[in-house]
UniProtKB/TrEMBL annotation, chain A:
Keywords: Cell inner membrane, Cell membrane, Membrane, Sugar transport, Transmembrane, Transmembrane helix, Transport
Protein name: Xylose transport system permease protein XylH
Membrane-traversing stretches: 42-59, 71-90, 96-114, 121-141, 147-167, 206-223, 243-266, 287-313, 333-352
Annotated source species: Streptomyces pseudovenezuelae
Any one GO molecular function term: transmembrane transporter activity
Membrane topology: Multi-pass membrane protein
Function of the molecule: Part of the binding-protein-dependent transport system for D-xylose. Probably responsible for the translocation of the substrate across the membrane.
Main location: membrane
Automatic annotation (TrEMBL), chain B:
Residue span of region Disordered: 29-49
Xref: CDD domains: PBP1_ABC_sugar_binding-like (cd06312)
Endpoints of the signal sequence: 1-19
Keywords, alphabetical: Signal
Domain (Periplasmic binding protein): residue spans on this chain: 57-301
UniProt protein name: Sugar ABC transporter substrate-binding protein
Family: Belongs to the bacterial solute-binding protein 2 family.
Organism name: Streptomyces pseudovenezuelae
Length: 359, 339
């Protein structure tokens, strides 16, 4: 878990923060437990455990393995997107178009393959190009204009929302895509993006595995590679990062493209698990991804965060959303419960890290 | 030429090669099944065209963008407009205040007739009065079956959501259901709530409601799975839109539940599921008919002074049940996206 990586990248330590390695009475080593607790992902880990234990007690069905698999599945579809969104936030930018971009990708793959009667892999490939292009456009506009990414991606969010609808209607004559489940390559693609396998009598969805693999990969990139250092640097202070030779534009554009890649991935999962796509879906999801990243300890202002934190953030979302149903509570209160539980979780997170960093 | 153009063409060569390769690859991977090629090109009901003078009709609904249901309403309206030599102006906004503005906009355009949905009747009262004052005939469709006369609309085409819910509840009783769950994809939507309430009224078993996030299908799937795991006695899932019914089928199999699925509203994938037997039945309110009749009635009024329903009764377009016994007749039309 989060315990193994308390090596902060060099760039994030504030310059001239004190007298360096000289130890005197005032800067004595603090206990290991407290230092661990001070890390944001440990706080969110404890918050997630608290929510989990709460529902284990309140909702008996949660104790079954299949329920856990279902909760993790819901968490994984949020979590796969929350990862690049978190990296982008560490890099100091937002992407409000990420929710509808998922649907754009799924629509592109489905319509391209169906209309030209091609193997679905051709559609998948074209959708990847489109998704990366959207990411590139977002990033390029942000670095070229210097405008806040909030505004730029608000623009692309609206554009994609309209394009999804208008193009689908233009091409198919309907507002949903045609069923592609009987086309060549579909079964193969379904195996890759939307299959499940059995472990001890419990059906595990493959997205859970991808989610954890991507999280491990993102953690490694963030903490062990030069590119990871660049992300922290451009999010912390763009100008000083540029001054020490960090390719700021490249880093930012590639982060936006990474979000595009994840949108493609989740889009393909949606397409191959549900066979068709509704063009109006996806609106509002971007805020869920951002929330998962923020609950996971990513700073809204950039420069700090982790890839493991958002994993627990996404888990917390999935757990609360499904836990309320497993507990059989009055559904009218659903959204309110969700809000209260999330606020509570964030408070625990905050309290833990405050207590741990107090001198 | 100079060297720069040479080097540019050299730089282009790989790009051209790549594009050619991509085109070849694409040509080589066409699908042998499904796709556009297998879809028959059969056009909708396009008969002749009226020779009456050109008129303009505004259709203003509370549609939210990208809803399959409203797409069918609009297709019906367009079909009638094409036949009746009518120019159709379509606009929509889910917020009542914005919808009222759109009606005002139509009045300002001096259209020859207005068709509106009364999802929130009180918000539209003033603007309907203005239209009447301007001498523009107004008809209602889809929602507002209990309010259209109060607002002074001439005619109404739609289904009473509560009545439709009650009909579905009775149908569940006939099927021997003991415990059902009503899945609401948009929390707080009046029409959807009325449907579930209607089911509750006539259904003799236990009915629970479940709110799901309709803009995120994986979440809908997980949430229905969770509900079916939490309460294993549920033997019927009632969804309020066709795409959610198809997802509920997956949820039931994930949860290892034997619950059957029934739904409000149709689309072409749903008719397939009904003939396969994975979905039991659907309640159809014939949205195409609502759009069609709204436009056609304004044309009739203008050209022959007719009232449908005699100005006293609403014209009901539903509830019509689609199940295994009649799905084949409906499927051909649903495939075109008009039923």
């Amino acid at each position: 878990m989060g315990m193994t990586q308390h090596a902060e990248p060099a760039v994030t330590t504030p310059p001239a923060s004190g007298p360096g390695k000289v130890t005197d009475g005032r800067t004595s080593e603090r206990p290991l437990a407290l230092r661990l607790l001070a890390r944001p992902e440990v706080g969110v880990f404890l918050g997630a455990v608290a929510v989990w234990v709460f529902f284990l007690i309140a909702a008996p069905p949660v104790r079954e393995g299949s329920s856990m698999a279902n909760i993790l599945y819901q968490s994984s579809t949020i979590g796969i997107m929350a990862l690049p969104v978190a990296l982008l936030m560490i890099g100091g930018e937002f992407d409000l178009s990420s929710g509808v971009a998922v649907i754009t990708s799924a629509l592109t793959a489905s319509m391209f393959a169906f209309q030209l009667t091609l193997n679905v892999w051709a559609g998948i490939f074209v959708a990847l190009l489109v998704s990366l292009a959207i990411g590139f456009l977002n990033g390029w506009l942000v670095v070229k204009t210097g405008l806040p990414s909030f505004l730029i991606t608000l623009g692309t969010f609206l554009i994609l929302q309209g394009v999804n609808l208008a193009v689908t209607k233009l091409v198919t004559g309907n507002v949903a895509t045609d069923d592609i489940s009987n086309m060549d390559g579909f079964d193969q693609a379904k195996k890759v993006f939307a299959s499940s396998f059995e472990v001890g009598g419990v059906q595990i969805k493959i997205t859970i595995i991808y989610w954890l693999v991507f999280a491990a990969l993102a953690t490694w990139v963030l903490l062990r590679t030069k590119y990871g250092n660049w992300i922290f640097a451009v999010g912390g202070n763009k100008d000083s990062a540029r001054a020490v030779g960090v390719p700021v534009n490249f880093t930012k554009i590639s982060l936006f493209m990474l979000v595009g890649f994840a949108a493609w991935f989740v889009g393909m999962h949606n397409l191959f698990s549900f066979n068709t796509v509704q063009s109006g879906e996806g609106v509002g999801q971007e805020l869920i991804y951002i929330s998962a990243a923020v609950i996971g300890g990513c700073l809204l202002t950039g420069g700090a965060g982790s890839a493991i934190g958002p994993v627990f953030g996404a888990f917390m979302f999935g757990m609360v959303q499904q836990g309320i149903v497993y507990a059989g509570w009055n559904p009218d209160w659903f959204k309110a419960f969700l809000g209260v539980m999330l606020l509570g979780a964030v408070m625990i997170n905050l309290w833990v890290s405050r207590t741990a960093t107090r001198r | 030429m100079d060297r720069s153009s040479l080097s540019r063409s050299r730089r282009f060569a790989p790009a051209v090669a790549l594009a050619a390769a991509a085109a070849l690859t694409l040509a080589g991977c066409s699908s042998s099944s499904g796709g556009k090629k297998s879809e028959e090109s059969a056009d909708g009901a396009s008969a002749g065209k009226a020779t009456t003078p050109r008129m303009t009709i505004a259709l203003v609904t509370h549609q939210s963008p990208g809803d399959t249901f409203w797409d069918i309403v609009r297709k019906g309206a367009q079909a009638a407009a094409a036949k009746d030599n009518v120019k159709l102006v379509y606009s929509a906004d889910p917020s009542a205040a914005n919808q009222a503005n759109l009606v005002q906009n139509a009045i300002d355009q001096k259209v020859d007739g207005i068709a509106i949905t009364l999802a929130k009747p009180d918000a539209l009262k003033d603007v309907v009065a203005k239209a009447k004052k301007a001498g523009i005939p107004v008809v209602g469709l889809n929602s507002g079956v209990s309010d259209w006369q109060k607002l002074g609309l001439m005619e109404f085409f739609g289904q009473d959501e509560s009545v439709a819910g009650e009909a579905l509840g009775k149908r569940l009783n006939e099927a021997g259901a003991k415990s059902a769950v009503c899945v609401i994809q948009e929390q707080g939507n009046i029409g959807l709530t009325q449907r579930c309430d209607g089911v509750k009224k006539t259904f003799t078993g236990k009915l629970q409601t479940l709110n799901v996030n309709g803009t995120d299908m994986p979440s809908v799937k997980s949430t229905i799975t969770a509900k079916l795991t939490q309460d294993k006695s549920i033997d019927y899932v009632v969804t309020l839109g066709a795409p959610f019914a198809l997802t509920a089928v997956q949820s039931a199999s994930d949860a290892g539940s034997k619950a059957k699925i029934a739904t409000f509203d149709l689309n072409k994938d749903l008719t397939g599921a009904i003939s396969k037997g994975t979905i039991e039945f659907a309640v159809d309110q014939q949205p195409y008919l609502q759009g069609y009749l709204a436009v056609d009635s304004l044309w009739l009024y203008k050209n022959n002074g007719n009232y449908m329903g005699g100005g006293e009764q609403p014209v009901l377009t539903g509830p019509a049940f689609v199940d295994k016994s009649n799905v084949d007749a409906v499927a051909a039309f649903a495939a075109k996206g008009t039923r």
